[in-house]
Each structure stands twice: as C-alpha cells, then as structure tokens.
Amino acid sequence: MQVCTLFIDCIKGWDFFFLWRGDIEALERSSLCLSSLSHFHSPQPSPSILKSTFFKGSLSPMFSSQPATAKCEDPSVTFTGWAAVPNGNGVLQKFGYHPRPLGAEEVEIMITHCGVCGSDIHFATEGWTPIVRPVIPGHEIVGTVVARGDNSAHKMGDRVGVGCLVGSCRTNLCEWCTKGEDQFCDQKTVTFNAPYTDGRGGISQGGLADRIRVFDDYAFKIPDIIPSAEAASMFCAGITTYTPLKRYKAGPHSRVGVIGIG
Questions:
Q1: pTM of the full predicted structure?
Q2: Domain Alcohol dehydrogenase-like N-terminal spans what residues (predicted)?
Q3: Which one of 59, 67, 88, 201 is least enclosed by Cβ atoms within 10 Å?
Q4: Average pLDDT over residues 37-64
Q5: What pLDDT, in 10s, does the model give residues 124-138?
C-alpha cells in the first residue's frame, strides 16, 4: 500500500503537499525528515522581512516559545504523532501525549489525512520563531469524529476537516470573531505549538498524529463528493487561494495571478 504521496505544484510557487494517511508504523518505516523535504522550496524571505512586511508585528504571540504555565491533560488517553523534538535536527520522532479533556463543545477526530505546508517546515525547524518541543506539526487535517462533547453540533462518524486554527475567544464582544474573521482575534489558538486561551491551560498539538481534539467551530464537515485526499490541502493552501477569488468576485474565465503560497 502506498502510504505517502508527494505533490509539487508549480502553480503554487513554493508550496507543496505531502499526504499523510494516518499510518504511524508505516510513516516510522519511511523515516520522514522535514529537513530533507525543505529543499523542494524556493528561498523564503528572512524573518525580519516577514515581520516588517507581512505581519506588521511580532510573530511570537501566535506561537509559544515557553512551556505552558498550567497543564490540562486527560491521563486516561494517549494520542500518538510525529514531533519535532529537542536536538532532533529536523527529524520527526514518534511522540505520545495526553490531550486536554474533551470539552462540552469539542470533538475528538480520528485523523486519516494531513497535508504538510511550508509553514510546518518553518516552525519545526525554527525558521521563523523558537518553539516548544516536542511539537507535532500539521494543519491540513481530515478525519472522522469518534467522540463528541455534550453540546457538540457534530455527529459521531462525521467526516470533518481542520485548518490552521483550533480556538479563539468566540465571544460577541470580539470585533473579529463577530465578523467571522477569527484569524485576527487576539485570543486565537493556532493548530500547533500555541497556548490555549480559554483558561484551561495547555499547548496545541497538530495533525501529524492519530487523533486530535478541537472546538466544534473549527471542525468543518466535508461534502461526500470531495475525497479526503483532495480535501486535506484545501484547509490551508486551498482556502488561501479561494478566499481572494471569492472576495474579489473572480468567476469563470477571469484572468488572475497567484503569488507563492505556503
């Protein structure tokens, strides 16, 4: 069985998609090494250029370089994934961790597919900012709901996808969350290596794993017509392209230019 497939898409510039099929043992045999994959990318802007040109501020509030101040773990459950570890030299190693207890408005997802974005490489190799290790990358996630909180809107067996966010303040007092632009929320939690901001503690771990727990609002049901292998990359590279096309009403036969994504 073919476990992983690598796509290099020239249209996306320096983005690529590495398909993870959720088979821990098979991936272990393949000796996945992020540093060896990074040569598929063109040179990136320096962190100082990214900071001043694109982000208009520090990258560090989104990601954590310090251990979580309070642990929030469910000791009865262990999730297994592939993590960047101390002194790992870019090689992902098998890592088990206890997830946070499943909240009333959360779901547990058994992961079947996960893409690898250029950002995963940058953070796992500390190309942009220091990180807390061990950390499991991955934010183009597809899987099946296998557990749900009492107030979850999802059903058992739903096929869902998760992108680059797993949390925000989600209140009607937030300028951004009320407009559906949670990515600008000061209390957002990105999918891996970020502190949760709901007061329960803990740091997020990503999708190169067998399971993940996320808030309902960040698990999106996938239409049956879209295969999981194709849906995964839509949760980062896909939506990055689709959003401006929709916002600027670029319909069929429109002539557009796509700058590098990743």
A1: 0.73
A2: 104-224
A3: 67
A4: 32
A5: 888 877 787 889 999
